[in-house]
Write a structure and sequence with these properties.
- The protein is 67% helix and 9% strand.
- The chain is an alpha+beta fold.
- It has three domains: 3-112; 115-197, no CATH class; 200-270, no CATH class.
- Strands 2-1-3-4 form a four-stranded mixed beta sheet, sandwiched between helices.
- The longest helix has 22 residues, at 91-112.
- The N and C termini lie far apart (46 Å).
Length: 270
């Protein structure tokens, strides 16, 4: 985001946090904000009208009131008016911010049930499963397949096996990627979750699955190193042979056996 959009995002957040603090139905709020984003994406005239920087905030909030009152709940309308009242550098920045608030609403709902960690784990694992199965990936991302068919496929894979919040985000990522690849959408959702929860996320790659105690010790160690909470996602890759590889932010800590063997081969060939 450019400067004015960053300021707009900050300015609109008060409306969103106020709605959550007042006890809004987070599930409904997320559903309605996702629906508004879909409408804005599909209607260029409406999108330009609510994002036009030449119009003052009052004019745009009046437009939002006329168009959406009665179509969305009072809480979603408050958030929408808080967003459109700001001055945005681009139309996409406005709709991206609404999408972000929808995702945060889902995570906030999980927080009330103490299941936010589980949602992050499940969403991460689902993305890895899709990435590892070309046929599944093709079926989920096939633009020629009907929405109903792809939604049913997601349901068959996840319903009853993951939290309701994970199912919402997985379905949204598949059915409404907004021009992005599925893995990119999931990565953005996980980044939003991490930012909301004021934590960093580490991806740990190992040759064998890590037990809960190992994972907890690793998370505690990384938290001590980087400061603040660190959520650990794990990936099993037999090719590393042994040891672990940790990716956190832009940093990579590679303590795998395969890396050491590669270093030894390079040294012998030097």
């Amino acid at each position: 985001m450019q400067g004015s959009s960053r300021a707009a995002a900050a300015g609109s957040r008060e409306a969103f946090t106020g709605v959550l603090a007042a006890g809004a139905d987070r599930t409904r709020l997320a559903e309605e904000l996702f629906a508004v984003v879909a409408l804005l994406d599909s209607n260029v005239t409406l999108r330009r009208a609510v994002a036009d920087p030449s119009h003052d905030g009052a004019r745009k909030t009046d437009l939002a009131e006329r168009l959406f009152a009665g179509r969305v709940g009072a809480e979603a309308l408050v958030v929408l008016k808080g967003v459109v009242s700001q001055r945005w550098s681009s139309e996409r920045d406005l709709s991206d911010t609404l999408e972000r608030y929808a995702v945060e609403s889902v995570i906030a709902d999980a927080e009330t049930q103490d299941s936010a960690d589980r949602v992050e784990d499940e969403l991460f694992r689902f993305e890895r499963i899709v990435a590892a199965d070309p046929d599944l990936r093709a079926a989920l991302t096939d633009a020629q397949a009907s929405t109903e068919r792809r939604s049913a496929l997601i349901g068959s894979l996840l319903e009853g096996k993951v939290t309701p919040q994970t199912l919402v985000l997985a379905r949204q990522a598949v059915l409404s990627p907004r021009g992005r690849r599925f893995d990119s959408v999931v990565r953005e959702y996980l980044e939003i979750a991490a930012t909301r929860r004021e934590q960093q996320t580490a991806t740990v790659i190992s040759a064998v699955p890590l037990g809960e105690q190992e994972r907890s010790r690793l998370a505690a160690g990384l938290s001590a190193i980087y400061g603040g909470k660190v959520h650990v996602n794990t990936v099993v890759d037999p090719r590393v042979l042994g040891g672990i590889k940790v990716e956190i932010g832009d940093e990579v800590i590679d303590g795998t056996v395969i890396r050491k063997l590669d270093a030894a081969r390079r040294a012998m060939g030097a």
